[in-house]
Amino acid sequence: MAEFTLELNDDQKQVKEWLHGFAADVIRPAAAEWDEREETPWPVIQEAAKVGIYSLDFYAQQFFDPTGLGIPMAMEELFWGDAGIALSIVGTGLAAVGVLANGTEEQIGTWIPQMYGDADDVKVAAFCSSEPDAGSDVASMRTRAVYDEAKDEWVLNGTKTWATNGGIANVHVVVAVVDPDIGSKGHASFIVPPNTPGLSQGQKFKKHGIRASHTAEVVLEDVRVPGHCLLGGKEKLDERLARARERAKAGGERVKNAAMATFEASRPAVGAMAVGTARAAYEVALDYAKTRSQFGRPIIDNQGIAFQLADMRTRIDAARLLVWRASWMATTGKPFTSAEGSMSKLYASETARDVTAQAIQILGGNGFTREYPVERMHRDAAIYTIFEGTSEIQRLVIARTLSGMPIR
Ligand SMILES: Cc1cc2nc3c(=O)[nH]c(=O)nc-3n(C[C@H](O)[C@H](O)[C@H](O)COP(=O)(O)OP(=O)(O)OC[C@H]3O[C@@H](n4cnc5c(N)ncnc54)[C@H](O)[C@@H]3O)c2cc1C
């Protein structure tokens, strides 16, 4: 088991430098354009694929880094470049993790490569869980998957919303209800292969931030997928459902779970994205404060500005430490007994929201314009307190874990 250390090893330092170079030279210069266009930045994804940043190999290497720091370090650097473009680059990873976590070896080998495509023909993937009436309350999901035994096919019907890469993905991973009586324990995940009839894109959302990342509804109308598209396989599902039904019967209650466990493992990664955006805005603000003069001296000469920068940096470093702790715990199999994953996402996302707002203030009128990047960074940062469990849900998870009480 990897000892916890705050010092990156030589390999990690090299990867960090490489990613930082890509973020600075390729992502950051393209950020304003793709934010305005509100379109998936295919040429940038392709560039990332060419150098090996957009690839299964790269994510697998970071994911399986025994120290747990590979993913947070990669996320921080890419999102430092730009959040919208970085999400377009790493969005496929959420679907890939869904398959890695639940799929058989054969499913992993078959579907993950199709999610990424290759440098000459890049593809993306989507993870579709949220629905119009099931956001935080995942257990209210309505999309149904019914097994057609005669054909060994699953039939999916429902509407998914907010899917990153939804409708433009080569492979969609769809979470659906197979047993409505046991809440979220009756959910299962399915692969919807490329060009499957019945899957279509609903509305594409025009967003406040991360506008280079495609977010859309996904409509499923009698979508038939082969039996082998059930992640983990039927036998495992049947066993799991039988256990959950027994437990539900013993407890005499419908098992209900408000998005609690679903994204626990990916939460530190979202925290790391937030750290990247916060650090980017802080750096712009620090630079500006040292060069902008008013009243005959740089504005950083005023404690009112300098102390804000001190607080911003302190919060960013604290957020990173929480993220690294949680990632290390998750990778080394230590249970989140105090909801450390949620703590890291909560603190880092609120830090990004606040630090980017402070950066606008420090840049004054310039901060409020699109001539400077902090305005975009602040719009982008707003997503972190919302997706993969809102701040309120994180507080609920933390409070319930600490108290053992069914706090509502
Ligand atoms: C840009 C973007 C990309 C996304 N990408 C994906 C994706 O790829 N795949 C996917 O499946 N989903 C995705 N999501 C969905 C995201 O995870 C949900 O938006 C999020 O979980 C919140 O759900 P909701 O929007 O329905 O809000 P709601 O659950 O309706 O919440 C509304 C408000 O009520 C609060 N609230 C709800 N319940 C409680 C409670 N019990 N106690 C206190 N407060 C509460 C919430 O905190 C929030 O402030 C994405 C969303 C966005 C905006």
From TrEMBL:
Q: Which domain of life is it from?
A: Bacteria
Tell me if Oxidoreductase is a UniProt keyword of this record. yes
Ranges where the Acyl-CoA dehydrogenase/oxidase C-terminal domain occurs: 258-402
Q: What cofactor does this one take?
A: FAD
Q: Does the keyword ATP-binding apply?
A: no
EC class:
oxidoreductase
Show the coiled coil region(s).
none
What range(s) does the Acyl-CoA oxidase/dehydrogenase middle domain occupy? Answer: 126-223
Cite the GO molecular-function annotations of the record: oxidoreductase activity
Instruction: Please state every residue range assigned to the domain named Acyl-CoA dehydrogenase/oxidase N-terminal.
Output: 10-115
Q: Print the keywords alphabetically.
A: FAD, Flavoprotein, Oxidoreductase
Entry EC number(s)? 1.-.-.-
State the family named in the UniProt similarity comment for this chain.
Answer: Belongs to the acyl-CoA dehydrogenase family.
Name of the protein described by the UniProt record: Acyl-CoA dehydrogenase family protein
- Species of the source: Streptomyces caviscabies
